[in-house]
Amino acid sequence: SRGFKNICRIWAAADTRTINKMAPPGKIYDACFVGRLSYQKGIDDLLKVWVGVVKELPQVKLTIVGWGYEKGEEKFLEEIRKLGLEKNIAYQGFREGENKFQIIKSSKIAILPSRYESFGIVFLEALSCGMPVVAYDLPVLKESFSRGVLYVQLGKTEEMAHKVVFLLKNELEAKRLSDEGLELSRQFSWEKVGHKTWQFIQQL
């Protein structure tokens, strides 16, 4: 609309080849979070949500793959201690590649309370790993990921905690969302995204 022609919107992709070749690990964690430890990614809301989950299910464990906390890593660990969550959170620090995917796959669900996103590559990676996701209902996420995700109104941490507890108590519903997310994620492989890009270039 601004004078540009021949525009094709190409979505991001996940390394599904690496994810799919990995042997399924056992479920060590009840939930996982992957992302920067920032306001954008909702790290403060994540801790509020987990406090609510622990009240209902005292033995649950959340693993956090994160980096870049604005106040420093030790401050973040101190926040966890202040909330009494030391036994309920396993902080992994920065991970990438197969190591990151192994941790995601070792979890039952993913909690990703981002306040805003441009696409949401971590959401795609979680779905590709077979994780049901609980997230805020951002329009960009709902447009890309219409299945495999339970959405909650932005800022409703208590409701998000309830959704997490619901999935942890209902394996059949979690499996249904897992299957839906896996099916949806297949359209975001590098092969399919690359093919779509090449088709567009050939038309120019």
Throw out a few tags for this protein:
six-stranded parallel sheet; 9 helices; alpha/beta; globular; single chain
Protein described:
This protein has 204 residues and is α/β, with parallel strands linked by helices. Helix content is 47%, strand content 16%. It has nine helices and six strands. A six-stranded parallel sheet has the order 3-2-1-4-5-6, sandwiched between helices. β4, α5 and β5 (133-136) form a beta-alpha-beta unit. α2 packs across α7 (157-169) and α5 crosses α8. The relative contact order is 0.19. The mean pLDDT is 88.
Output the strand order for the largest sheet: 3-2-1-4-5-6
Structural class: alpha/beta
Shape: globular
Share in helix? 40-55%
Number of alpha- plus pi-helical segments: 9
* Low-confidence sequence ranges: none
Q: What is the mean pLDDT?
A: 88
Amino- and carboxy-terminal Cα gap: 18 Å
Sketch the major β-sheet.
6 strands, parallel
How many whole angstroms does the radius of gyration measure? 18 Å
Along the chain, the helix and strand elements come as: HEHEHEHEHEHEHHH
| Percent range for β-strand residues | 15-25%
Quick one: how many beta strands?
Answer: 6
